[in-house]
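Q: Focus on the chain.
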Amino acid sequence: MEVIGLFLVSAGLAWWLGWQRHRVGMSRIRGLLGTVGEEADVALAVATREATQRGQILAPLHLLYGLLQDDAFVAAIAAVGGDAAAIEHRVLDDLDALVQAPDLARRETPDNAAFAVVMARLYARHHGRPVTCADLWHAIARTTAASLVQAGEADPGKLAFVLVHGPSEPRSTLAGETAVAIVLRNDDYTTAEFVVELLRDVFQLPDATAQAIMVATHTEGRGVIGRFDAATAKTRVEAAWARARAAGHPLWIAVEVS
């Protein structure tokens, strides 16, 4: 589970990075990302080129356009029923609109590239790995650019899940089982605070128990919520899925043989 307070830290960094962007330009944003994985590096190069050719300051729209050139990202969109080509057309239309209103790309708000880049870097740095396309998407998903993905019939929450876990669906039922265990898997994006709240609200666990399960999931990669009858497990797992997707978290929660 991601550390609590990540977003509070990012707010100050986003402001600083936004100031740096105006002072030294777009190349500085690219450099501040640190180590970048191969696929993310290609997406960032495409985004930077697109912004440069249009004479625009790098924005989440450019980053989303870069991701749409990545085969794995396009496949993830298809896996959740989206149309990557339609999304790309919408992105390009909005980038054309920025030519007519360039100030839209310069606003110092949480909806600029500084915010997205800082968030992607924080995800990766906290876990000691290069920046990935999944990091970039999870950052972009918190800007209005994500609405173009939703308009292309791709649910942003489901897309986040597929980028992290792949297209395999977790299960809420097991044929022939009358009692099952409900388990959590760790990921780099779902916040600890969200997990604890979900365990309290959906599974009606005491705060201390919810905290302990969250910590076990974070440290061991997997946590067992408890053993339930099959009908109760199905209802609670599916409620947890809905809550996680609505919040944009790629939380894996499923049933296993108890």
Q: What stands out?
A: Residues 200 and 206 are 6 Å apart (CA to CA). The chain is about 60% helix and 10% strand. The domain at 179-257 is CATH 3.30.1390.10 (Ribosomal Protein L30; Chain: A,). The first strand starts at residue 179 and ends at 185.
